[in-house]
Write a structure and sequence with these properties.
By secondary structure, the protein is mostly beta strands. It has 1 helix and 9 strands, in the order βββαββββββ. The protein has one domain. Strand 6 and strand 7 form a beta hairpin.
Length: 105
């Protein structure tokens, strides 16, 4: 229902957020890429529940995804900082290259 809790207590700052973003895996970038279905040149802004491991802090994290090449490359940008990376995906929409952090072998 779009409501988050921690230790049974509501986290209203995350109300309406459906996408998680886990620091330990690029798979969570796959979720909005597949859900948004952007065409080349299109962008979308979303907010994720950013979960930082290993401390397990959770905060709202505004982000932007821009399709650079349909079915191949996306620009991921944090709207809360100057962090951005160009992500490469495979034909299934799975992230295969997240520069400086992860690359599928």
């Amino acid at each position: 229902d779009g409501r988050w809790t921690r230790d049974g207590l509501p986290m209203p700052e995350l109300d309406g957020i459906f996408d998680p973003d886990l620091t330990v895996t690029p798979f969570t970038n796959t979720l909005p890429i597949r859900r948004l279905q952007l065409s080349a040149g299109q962008s979308a802004e979303i907010t994720t529940a950013f979960i930082d491991f290993p401390v397990l802090s959770v905060v709202a994290n505004p982000q932007r995804y821009t399709c650079l090449e349909e079915g191949r490359r996306y620009l991921y940008e944090s709207r809360a900082s100057d962090f951005k990376r160009e992500l490469e995906i495979d034909r299934h929409g799975l992230v295969v290259d997240y520069p400086d952090f992860w690359r599928r072998g």
